Amino acid sequence: MKKLKFIAIATVVLFMSACSSFVEDYDVSPNSPSEVTPALLLSNAQVATFATYQGQLARLANMMTQQLVGTDFQMLQQGNYTLLEGDHINEWDVLYNDIIQSTKTLREEYGEGNPYYVGMANVLEALALGIATDFWGDIPASDAADGLTGNYEPTWDSQEAVIARIQSLLDEAITNFGKGIVDNAAVPGGDDLIGGGDIASWTMYANMIKARYSIRLTKKDETKAATDALAALTAAGLTGNGDDMLSAFGAGGNELNPWDAFANSRGGYLRMSSNLVNVMTGSSDPRLPFYAGVDTGGAYSGTDVGVVNTVTSPIGTYLRGTTGDLISYVECKFIEAEAQIIKGDKTAAAAAHNDAVKAHVEKITGGADSAFYATNASEDGSSISLEKIMNSKWVAMFGQAETWADWRRTNFPTLTANPSGDVEVIPRRLVTPLNERLYNNNAPANTDITAPVWWDM
After folding, report:
1. CA Rg, the chain, in Å?
2. 436: phi then psi, degrees, rounded to nearest 5
3. What CA–CA distances, in Å, run from 71 to 61, 98, 154, 192, 416?
4. How far apart are CA 216 and CA 345, in angstroms?
5. CA proximity to 255, closest of 1, 15, 3
6. Which of 289, 412, 404 is nearest to 353 (CA)?
7. In angstroms, rounded to a whole number, what is the distance separating the alpha carbons of residues 270 and 73?
């Protein structure tokens, strides 16, 4: 029962990390369980990953890419580009204390004879390092989470080195997943909240994430980025929406999807952006009633960027469900489309784009829409373009942190900075977290939110 209690309390901590004082009445520390096992470490890292990918960082990314608009309190402030060093300490701590520390401990304490657990730990660490470096640039990686051995000031690795580490972690994971079940002292099962212990799925997930962080480098070497992404997708062997790597949530209490919990307690803080609603309304997009709730007049509308208007549409049922994307078949089809257009095969790019749009419509609405497909998923080699691919991906990636990275890489969709913003351009990174500046002498003094990260230059 102690294990279950730990996981439940950890869920509270992670899903409500925006409020730091709520745990003051608990007398059991979620970071000090009486018994630690590979299963417990895996589940804890997964719950923390769910909270991260469907939490505040995703909300921020969607404000930066104008899918959502902040309309009150800290969302209004951050939507106006006031991004301070104390704003995302909780998100940073979850990444390092709950994901990277758990995965590191799992490998070091239980790695021998448990290649499947090690592989899963590697994939989760890759996801943690990936979202951290996308938002902050250079970050601790090579000696992160070494506090238990007395290293309280980890070095900050260059983003180039972090991306390389992500790919190395994923390669090692794939090798571990290739070992036989008899090579494992313990086998993941119900403690694997993502895949239920299905190693073939985890091999696929590792390759999907490899594709994401290959295409990330289009500004550094777009041909290599495209080639590497396509190779990873071929290895993944994707077949459809059933290949999605998903977060898992419950239907109430502490198990709620963070999007749902946020909407329940702070519904007035965010509204749909007029940019996204107008695009979807103009194309009669069947996903709009799932993306957005109705406004005070019973219709679908969005708030203009830089305007405080809370009578427009809130987020709808889609983001508030019992699953959330960590990486999806749809995202990978858009990666394929982008990679193919870089490689010069516009026919293949068009086919991948069309498949992505159709798959996402069917995933969200539960059925096909031939009229919508006729005008929005019928590209061919003569009509497809990178702009069309990325604009379609922007719509499909609603609610995900990936949107900010895509926009920074490609400048699509075309966005105009918030006229009420504290800076005159859309931010391209977060500043060094306050605790790192205060207590880690190796932390860089990154204070310029307009400065691009390494892969964005």
Report:
1. 21
2. -70, -40
3. 15, 31, 37, 37, 18
4. 20
5. 15
6. 412
7. 10
Task: Give 4's contacts (C-beta < 8 A, 6+ positions apart).
Answer: none
Query: Six-digit token pair at 309?
Result: 């208007």
Of 20, 94, 92, which Cα lies nearest the Cα of 437?
A: 92
Structure tokens at 337: 């489309």
Phi first, then psi: what are they for 273, rounded to 5°? -80, 140
Per-residue pLDDT at 33: 53
The CA distances from residue 440 to 149, 360, 375, 436, in Å, are 16, 43, 54, 5
DSSP 29-74: -TT--S---HHHHHHHHHHHHHHHHTSHHHHHHHHHTTSEEE-SHH
Residues 6+ away with beta carbon under 8 Å from 280: 287, 288, 291, 300, 395
Between CA 390 and CA 411 the distance in angstroms is: 9
Instruction: Tell me how far apart the alpha carbons of residues 443 and 139 are, in angstroms, rounded to a whole number.
Output: 8
Q: Which residue has the tokens 């007029």?
A: 274
Token pair belonging to 150: 């007395």
Q: Tell me, what amino acid is at 281? A: T
Round to whole Å and give the CA distance between 138 and 422.
24
Q: What is the pLDDT of residue 247?
A: 98
Q: Which two tokens stand for residue 124?
A: 């989760």
Strands 68-70 and 270-272: antiparallel
Cβ atoms of 93 and 433 within 8 Å: the answer is no
DSSP-derived secondary structure for 390-423: HHHHHHHTTT-THHHHHHHHH--S-----TT-SS
Separation of alpha carbons 243 and 147, rounded Å: 37
Those residues of the chain that have pLDDT short of 70 are 1-34, 148
pLDDT of residue 36: 85
* Nearest-angstrom CA–CA distance, 35 and 18: 28
